[in-house]
Write a structure and sequence with these properties.
Blueprint lengths: L9 E10 L5 E6 L7 E2 L2 E3 L6 H13 L4 E6 L4 E4 L15 E11 L15 E7 L13 H15 L1
Parallel strand pairs: 1-7
Antiparallel strand pairs: 1-4, 2-3, 2-8, 5-7, 6-7
Length: 158
């Protein structure tokens, strides 16, 4: 049986651009992707949550980080579509991609707060990178989202 994936809905999600005091961006390497791709914290919205609450929860669940200050909410929602080989597998096959609301936040804690070895770990490693390098580390299907975010962050910081 062949499913028509184009009819699948998009998942509602959030993403966090986390900047340190040197304006470097937090990225982490996913456990389920052995290649050298990194991503910013992101995830879905739980029932009853608004976008900002979901962003704070996802950040804490994935990185243990709670010491943040909101810099700005990105106005435009950004969307990516999964590649064919992942549609039907990720999110139990219920969605073809994700439409995300992004938040730019400042990390105001100590690095010892960062712990990716969480209850349900998603990441193998993490690091701070230059904003300029954001589009060099992204998986192909999220590249346009990361290009848009890079432009928005440059505007916010300048």
């Amino acid at each position: 049986m062949i499913r028509n994936f184009s009819k699948l809905p998009l998942r509602k999600g959030v993403g966090i651009v986390l900047l340190n005091n040197k304006n470097k961006v937090f990225v982490a390497k996913r456990i389920d992707n052995p290649k050298n791709f990194w991503q910013m914290p992101q995830g879905g919205i739980d029932k009853g949550e608004n976008y900002y609450e979901a962003a704070l929860r996802e950040l804490k669940e994935e990185t243990s980080i709670v010491s943040v200050k909101l810099i700005q909410e990105i106005e435009e929602k950004l969307t990516y579509i999964l590649p064919d080989n992942l549609i039907g597998i990720i999110w139990r096959g219920r969605f073809k991609g994700q439409t995300q609301k992004w938040f730019v936040m400042r990390f105001i804690g100590k690095e010892s707060e960062i712990n990716i070895n969480t209850k349900n770990p998603e990441f193998l490693d993490w690091k701070w990178i230059d904003l300029e390098d954001l589009t060099k580390i992204a998986v192909n299907f999220k590249l346009n989202v990361y290009k848009s975010l890079k432009k928005e962050i440059f505007k916010i910081l300048n």
